[in-house]
Amino acid sequence: MATLKTPLCDLLGIDLPIIQAPMAGGPTTPELVAAVSNAGALGSFGFAYMQPEAMQRDVELARVRTSAPLGVNLFLSKDADAIDAAAQQPALDAVRPYFAELGLPAPQPVKPPYSPDRRSQLAAIDAIKPAVFTFHLGDTGPAPVAHLRASGIKVGGSATCVAEARHLEALGVDFIIAQGGEAGGHRGTYLRDPYQAMTGTLALVRLIVKAVRVPVVAAGGIMDGAGIAAVLALGAQGAQLGTAFVPCTESGASAVHKQAILTAQEDDTVITEKFSGKPARGIVNRYVREMQDSPTLAFPAQNALTGALRSAAAKAGKSEFVSLWAGQAAPLARALSAAELVATLRDETLEALDRLRSLG
Amino acid sequence: MATLKTPLCDLLGIDLPIIQAPMAGGPTTPELVAAVSNAGALGSFGFAYMQPEAMQRDVELARVRTSAPLGVNLFLSKDADAIDAAAQQPALDAVRPYFAELGLPAPQPVKPPYSPDRRSQLAAIDAIKPAVFTFHLGDTGPAPVAHLRASGIKVGGSATCVAEARHLEALGVDFIIAQGGEAGGHRGTYLRDPYQAMTGTLALVRLIVKAVRVPVVAAGGIMDGAGIAAVLALGAQGAQLGTAFVPCTESGASAVHKQAILTAQEDDTVITEKFSGKPARGIVNRYVREMQDSPTLAFPAQNALTGALRSAAAKAGKSEFVSLWAGQAAPLARALSAAELVATLRDETLEALDRLRSLG
Q1: Which of A121, A265, B136, B153 is the least buried, fewest Cβ under 10 Å from its Cβ?
Q2: Does domain B7-79+115-251+333-357 have CATH number 3.20.20.70?
Q3: How far is CA B208 from the centre of its chain?
C-alpha cells in the first residue's frame, strides 16, 4: 500500500509527513487541529498569545474529537521591557486615526505584561503533555527543551538560517523546522537580523539538511503535494503548511483573512512589523502601506496595542486593518475542509512521486 | 538505462535537464560552455556586455570543442538615456576614493553607448544561430522572439513573477526560466518593482508551472542533485544553475569570486544596485556596505563606470571591490571541473529520485 511515512512520522506518531502550522491569533481552533490529526497529519495549536487556562481548554476540546497526536507551539522570545506611557505616545498617535475610523475609543498606553507569561505557558505545556511541542523565536536555554523531552514530548524548533539550526541542534531538539523566506506569519529569526535571514525555502532546507543530523521539516511556500514532494527530495522528512490551512472550513481565521488569501497574487505579500512589533509576512493592505514609516512599539507591546483595531476590523469585514498573514504561494490556496485538504495533499504528493518515477 | 530526460530536453536537444546559467561578465568562457554541453547539459554564454564580434569569436571557440547544442543569453533591457557629465558627478564622487585606493586614475564621466547595441547583438544571434537563445529583462516586443524562432532557435525568457511568465508566454517563447529570490546575479524583473518580485524559488516555480502551458526551467538556490529533483517534483522540466558553475576549473570568474563562493555563508548575500545600476544578488563586501546610501548611475552606465574598479580589484586579489555574484545556496558550491560537476549533478539527481522511491 502506498505510504508517505518518513522516520519523522514514526517519531511523531503520524501517518503523513505533513504538519499543519501552529498559527497564533485565531486560525488554529480545536476543530481544525483535531480534524487535521484525524486525517493523519499533525494538527497544531498556535498558543503564542494564549493564557494557560485557554491553552488547556482548547487542547481538551480537541482531545474530545481525536486521540491522535497533537502539536502545540509557543513563541519563546524574551518579554519586552515595560515601556512607559510617554514613550508610547508616537506609536499611539500613529494608530489613532484608524481607531477613530472604526469608531473605537482612542488607543490607550498598553500595560505589561504585554503577552502571557512564558513560564506559565511552559508549565501548561508540561501539564498538557502534547505529543509534540514546537517553538518559534527560540532564544531560550537548553533547560526547557530537556525538561519537556524528559516527559516524552517530542520537541522541535524553528530556524531561519544555518546558524539557528546548529544552535537548535545543540539545544537538543528532536527536529528542526526550516522556515524559508516564502513563509507567511512571523519570521522565527532569533540570532540574526530577520531581514537578512530571508533565504528561500529551497535553498534553506537543503543547507540545513546538510548542516544538522536531526530530522528537518520544511516550511514556506508549500501549498500542495508537488511542494511536499519537492521538500522530501531536498531531504526534509516533513512539510509544515500554514497558509494552505487558513481557508479551511474549521479554521478560526476571519472571513476577510480567508478571502484575502483566496484572491491573493504571489507578489502581494510583504514583511511588516507594524501589527506586532516583529517582522511577519502578510498580504499588503492599507494599514501596512500607510504605517510603513510610522513608529511602533516593541514586540509584543505593539501586538497588544493593535489588538482592538484588528479584531474590530475583522468583525466589520474591513481587511484594511487586519493582519492578513500569508506566504508567497498563497494563490495556490483552496477552500476545503481540513480532512479534504489533507487527503488532497496526500494524493497529490503520491501523484508527484509517481510522475518522478518516469525519470531516473 | 537511467535517464533524466524531460520533454524540454528533447526540445533543446540535450540529455540532462540542466542548464549552466549564462552568467555575464566573465565566468562563461568557451571552455566552460563547451565542457558543460559535452557533458550532456546545456552550456550557455552570458553575452550581455559583449560586442557582436566577441560573441561570434567565443561561440566559434566553443564550437571547435563541441558539436552539442549551446545557449546564448542577452539582457534586453531598454538602453539608458545619455547622462550628462555634470549629472554624473555625485556617482563619480562616490566611487572616487576606491579608484584612488587601488591606484587607478580618477573616474571620468562615462559616455554612451554604455553597453553594446542591442540590435547589433540580436543580429549576431541571428548569424550565430545557437540552439538556444534566452533573454533576461525582457521588455521587448514579440518581433525578435518570432524572428529568431523562425530560424529554428529555441527561445526562452526569464520571469521573476507570474505576471512576467504570462507576458513571456504571450510573446511566444518556447520556455520560461522562473528565477526565484535565491538566485545570484541580476534580477530579471522587468514588469514589477524588483525588490517586491522576490518570491522564493519553491513558491515561484510551482506558481508559474500552474500559470503557463510552456515548459518551465527553475533557477535560484539549486546547487546539487537534490535541488534538481526538487524542482522536477514541482513540475519544472529543467534546472538552471549559475553559482554552482562559478568555481569550475574552466570558469572565467576571478580567483577572488571563486574563493568568495567557496567560503560563503548562506546569509552573506544581498541584493545591490551599486555595481551595475540594476539589482543583483551577490556576496556582501566592503564596497556594497559602504556604498549603500551613495548615488549611482542608471543601468548600464553604472556598470561602465565601475568596470575599471572591478577588474583592477579582481587582478589585485581584492575582493572588497569585486561584484561577487552568488545565490543563497552558495555554501553548497564545489570546486570541480565542469564535466565532473555535471556528472555529479546527474548522479545526485538519480540518487534523490531513488530515495523518493522508498516512499509512495
Answers
A1: A265
A2: yes
A3: 19
Kindly determine whether residue B356 and residue A266, on different chains, have CB atoms separated by under 8 Å: no
Residue B202 — φ and ψ, nearest 5°? -60, -50
The answer to whether B212 and B322 are in contact (CB under 8 A) is no
Fold classification of A7-79+114-252+332-357 (topology level):
TIM Barrel (3.20.20)
For residue A307, give Cα distances in angstroms to A202, A304, A314, B329. 34, 5, 11, 38
Closest Cα of chain A to B284: distance in Å?
Answer: 11
Q: What are the distances in angstroms from CA A103 to CA A100, A135, A289, A304?
A: 5, 37, 21, 18
Q: Which residues of A touch B350 (CB under 8 A)?
A: 360
Q: In this complex, do A331 and B162 lie within 8 Å of one another by their Cβ atoms?
A: yes
| DSSP category for residue B77 | P
Q: How many residues does chain A have?
A: 360
Residue A7 DSSP label? H
User: Grid cell 570541480 — which residue?
Assistant: B336
pLDDT band at B158 (very low <50, low <70, confident <90, very high): very high
In this predicted model, what pLDDT tens digit does every residue of A178-224 receive, in sequence order?
Answer: 999 999 999 999 999 999 999 999 999 999 999 999 999 999 999 99
Residue that has been written with the C-alpha cell 550565430 in this structure: B128
Residue A225 C-beta-side C-alpha neighbours within 13 Å: 19
Contact B120, B52 (CB under 8 A): yes
All residues of chain A having their beta carbon less than 8 Å from the beta carbon of residue B202 are 180, 182, 200-202, 220-222, 227, 230-231, 329
Could you give the ipTM of this predicted complex? Answer: 0.97
By CB atoms closer than 10 A (0-12, 13-18, 19+), residue A180 is buried
Lookup result for grid cell 506558481: B207
Q: Are the C-beta atoms of residues A297 and A305 closer than 8 Å to each other?
A: yes
Greatest CA separation for chain A: 67
Name which of B205, B166, B194, B181 is nearest A223 in CA terms. B205
- How many other β-carbons are positioned within 10 Å of the β-carbon of residue B211? 19
> Among candidates A236, A256, A234, which has minimal Cα distance to A247?
A256
| Cβ-count burial A304-337 (b if 16+ within 10 Å, e if not) | bbbbbbbbbbbeeebbbbbbbbbbbbbbbbeebb
Residues B334 and B225: their CA atoms lie apart, in Å, by 13
Distance CA A128, CA A133 (A): 10
Kindly state the average pLDDT of the residues B182-189: 98
Residues of chain A under the 50 pLDDT cut: none
CA-to-CA distance for B23 and A82, rounded, in angstroms? 52
- Interface touch B200/A328, C-beta < 8 Å: yes
| Structural contact between residues A287 and A321, judged by C-beta atoms closer than 8 angstroms | yes
Contact residues on chain A for B192, CB-CB shorter than 8 A: 267
